[in-house]
Amino acid sequence: MRLFLIYILLISACISLRASNAKDSIPISKPTRHTSYLREFSYVPVPLIASSFIVKACKNDIRGARNNFIPNWHSEIDNYIQYAPIVFATGLKAAGVESRSKWGRYAVSSAFSYAIMAGLINLGKYTIKEQRPDGSAHNSFPSGHTATAFASAAILHKEYGQTRSLWYSVAGYTVASITGIMRVMNNRHWASDVLCGAGIGIFSVDLGYFLGDVIFRDKQLQRPVRENESSFLTAPNFFNLSVGAGLIAHNTDIAGLDISMSRMITAQAEAAYFFTKHGGAGIRFNVSSPIVSYEKYSDVMGIYTLTAGAYLQYPITPRFAIGGKAMIGRLLISGFKLGDELTVDKKVGMTYGIGANLAYAYRNNIAWRLNADFDMNHVRFKSTRMQQHYSQRKAFGQLTLTASMSVMF
Q: N or C: which end of the chain has fewer CB within 10 A?
């Protein structure tokens, strides 16, 4: 939990600093014509919704890691911060800060967006009837809170991120991501519910704004869209969210037992700032849930890491780039239990890692990334077996392959 809070504080500080220095004198395009409104649809919802059905197959792994780490954790914050981006956007308009749309167009486009989102969410909830992880109801998939948060963030992105500064978008999607993470931490949703909810939220705003554009055409456009900056030569900095799979494939002796660690689901948030087009620094928060087993027993061990380090990037073309990184940081294992044979406590350790990625910037400050990371983790396992206590320092490596959507700035 401390690693998560530290990461959020670092991101928030970075966002605040950048937004305060952002200038309004940015290159902007001519007002968008109604004939090009379809171009504002993004492909971002597609991998989010597709990955939600893939993650459903491993949803118990992520829940197991959560239960071993914070079994009794509960917070009501996610009930409120889901609305933060739309409240922020509306507050900016009320304060006289110009955005993409005037009030009438803004109200209609937003109303369409939320109506579409509510319809899709309820269709999914009462058709699929997925049981919530806490067993309270059969309306878990997809997550309505997450959909609301990402719809709010997408509206902030369209109104201010695309017309003034992309840091509005980063702020909105960061808050939306926190909402989704907290739904899992609160044991109210599976990770797959959150991914699908995020995709539905973004898609609903794309469609809602398209309908608003069809109605209003070129009327009530207040501020034009900025020039497309999807180039690694002009906007190399990025913030991304990744989902993928990993492999430890490692056997280790803990308290005299041959424990195996195998497949895992991993998710991470990452941000990097480049001082030149080739080099910079960044941070990464990663959550992994490897399966640990001994004979007939198995459990899930959560691995939470917060790392920082050097990032490298080489633009092959303005839209294609390869990159690498070298990281160092702290990790926390959630602990696990294998029947009556072994209990392993939560413990903090060190981690070192390297990574490589291939990125493609397709439009509107959005890039797709394929990431391959290898981390070497060092932790002193504290365990109990047959009422005897053990303390052993172990090292184990993990390879993760993830795909991500990056916001470039």
A: N
At 239-269, the pLDDT tens digits run: 888 888 887 767 889 999 999 988 788 888 8
Greatest distance between any 2 Cα atoms in the chain = 75
- β-bridge mates for residue 350, sequence order: 330, 378
Task: Give the global pTM.
Answer: 0.83
DSSP characters over 5-47: HHHHHHHHHHHHHHHHH--S---BPSPPPGGGGGGG--STHHH
With 0-12 CB in 10 A as exposed, 13-18 as middle and 19+ as buried, what is 69? buried
What is the distance between the alpha carbons of residues 351 and 398, in angstroms, rounded to a whole number?
Answer: 10
Bridge partner list, 254? 257
pLDDT of residue 20: 38
Residue pLDDT, tens place only, 23-34: 433 344 444 444
Beta-bridge mates of residue 342: 338
Is residue 299 within 8 Å of residue 261, measured between CB atoms? no
Helix (H, G, I), strand (E, B) or coil at 394: strand
- Give every CB contact of residue 300 below 8 A, 6+ residues apart in sequence: 60, 61, 62, 64, 65, 68, 289, 290, 291, 292, 336
Domain positions in the chain are 2-216, 238-408
How far apart, in whole angstroms, are the C-alpha atoms of residue 230 and residue 260? Answer: 44
Domain 238-408, what architecture? Beta Barrel (2.40)
Q: Supply the DSSP symbol for 224.
A: P
| Polymer length in residues for the chain | 409
φ, ψ of residue 256 to 5 degrees: the values are 85, 5
* CA 31 and chain centroid, separation: 32
Contact present, 343 and 349 (Cβ < 8 Å): no
Is 299:337 a contact under the CB 8 Å cutoff?
yes
